[in-house]
């Protein structure tokens, strides 16, 4: 009986290992897109190498359009994002690399750990109060994340104008296209601001650029 159980466990582990080890085959239509070149160009333009960052680009098989940066500052784009045109993909790549440049993942972890530490102190003083961390921590980190999105959008916007010659007007069109096809943010528990606020955030720095006054 024991031998039978051991065999079953080995087969289950082998099955799981096989699934985990199955590589994702990137479709040819994605390989034909200039995403890799654009990634390298944005990486160079943001001078991430000077910061000691060696970001890599990966493709996730999800059909939902999305992109994110992990703790190693590697960027992942979903296969669904490649249903959009190259300008949108460039925007997402540059936005995620801006997160890496600004060290947002690290900073968000610091905020989360600090909040947890503070709640542990409160819990030591007031029995049971530490359990509030399950509500307080997401509220603090998610709203901190919103400010990071604004910063990443602004840095990405400047980089797109400088390195890719994508105007602010084109960027507004990109965000409006994404707005139509993705869920809106902005709620108290959301990690991203509302699209309308992100659009205004990109318009604002450029609208405030005033040419020097000429004195008679």
Major beta sheet, specifics? Answer: 3 strands, mixed
Q: Evaluate the radius of gyration.
A: 22 Å
CATH homology group: Metalloproteases ("zincins"), catalytic domain
CATH class: Alpha Beta
Number of helices: 8
- Low-confidence stretches are 2-20, 209-216
Number of strands: 3
Q: Could you say which structural class the secondary elements and strand pairing correspond to?
A: mainly alpha
The CATH level-2 architecture is identified as 2-Layer Sandwich
Query: What number is the mean pLDDT?
Result: 81
Number of domains: 1
Topology pattern, helix = H, strand = E: HHHEEEHHHHH
Can you give a write-up of this model?
The chain has 216 residues and is mainly α. The chain has one domain (22-204): 2-Layer Sandwich (Zincin-like). Helix content is 61%, strand content 5%. The chain is built from 8 helices and 3 strands; from the N terminus they run αααβββααααα. The chain has helices at residues 2-21, 28-31, 35-45, 86-101, 104-125, 133-163, 168-181, 195-207, and strands spanning 57-60, 67-69, 75-78. The chain has a 3-stranded mixed beta sheet, with helices on one face. It is globular.
């Amino acid at each position: 009986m024991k031998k039978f159980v051991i065999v079953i466990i080995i087969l289950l582990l082998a099955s799981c290992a096989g699934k985990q080890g199955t590589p994702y085959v990137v479709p040819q239509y994605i390989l034909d897109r200039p995403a890799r070149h654009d990634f390298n160009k944005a990486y160079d333009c943001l001078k991430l190498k000077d910061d000691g960052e060696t970001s890599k680009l990966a493709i996730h098989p999800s059909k939902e359009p999305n992109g994110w940066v992990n703790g190693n500052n590697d960027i992942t784009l979903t296969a669904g994002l490649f249903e959009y045109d190259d300008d949108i993909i460039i925007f997402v790549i540059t936005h995620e690399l801006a997160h890496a440049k600004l060290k947002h993942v690290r900073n968000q972890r610091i905020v989360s750990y600090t909040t947890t530490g503070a709640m542990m102190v409160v819990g030591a003083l007031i029995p049971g109060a530490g359990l509030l961390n399950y509500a307080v921590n997401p509220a603090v980190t998610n709203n901190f994340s919103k400010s990071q999105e604004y910063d990443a959008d602004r840095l990405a916007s400047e980089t797109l104008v400088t390195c890719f010659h994508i105007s602010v007007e084109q960027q507004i069109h990109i965000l409006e296209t994404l707005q139509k096809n993705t869920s809106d943010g902005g709620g108290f528990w959301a990690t991203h601001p509302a699209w309308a606020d992100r659009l205004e955030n990109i318009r604002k720095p450029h609208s405030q650029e005033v040419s020097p006054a000429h004195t008679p």
